[in-house]
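Just curious. Invent one:
>
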Amino acid sequence: MAVVQKMYPDVSHETFNRLALYVDLVRKWQPAQNLIAPKTLPDIWIRHVADSIQIQKTIPDARNWIDFGSGAGFPGLVTAILLADEPEALVHLVESNQRKAAFLRTVARETGCKVQVHAGRIESVTENWTQPIDAISARALASLAVLCGFSARLIQQGATAVFHKGQDFQREIEEASHEWSLDLVEHKSRVDPLSRVLVIRGMEPATAGRGPVS
């Protein structure tokens, strides 16, 4: 935890206490639920917590988030913990696995962060979405092209998407640009310099001869 505290000195001691409680719950539930890849458990603070903190820090003014495919809650629960003291903040966690959804609710209750867990498929949950959304997140879920499909309507309504992408990010951007014209900015990951955090503020279906906007 100390290493992550040095990475993010602006995060309060109280918030790190909440994050520590969250990490303890992941370790407790891991044997039964396989929440994260077992080989990453010893490095959970860097591989998962620090990697997730940077998402909220990328657009810190966002208060209403939706996190697709939340799984163990990285980055959605981390975002919610960072915003726990913001009275108007709310993070929507979309997770189709009922057991993982139960874990997300447990962490939210134990840490006192404000989330709403939607136990269903992304397409079904967002089909008739009416609640305000400032930002969209997803981590280790699907290709950028697929994420764009999930996010298009919300982005066109004013939301900003913030997606983790690994070392193959450039290929994913090129593939997505065949379907979408993107207002996209790359940020180098604070955890892995070969990875990127992609911020998408605008999106339209691609037209013939038109590439991505960056």
Summary: The longest strand covers residues 196-205. The two ends are 35 Å apart (CA to CA). The chain has a mean pLDDT of 95.
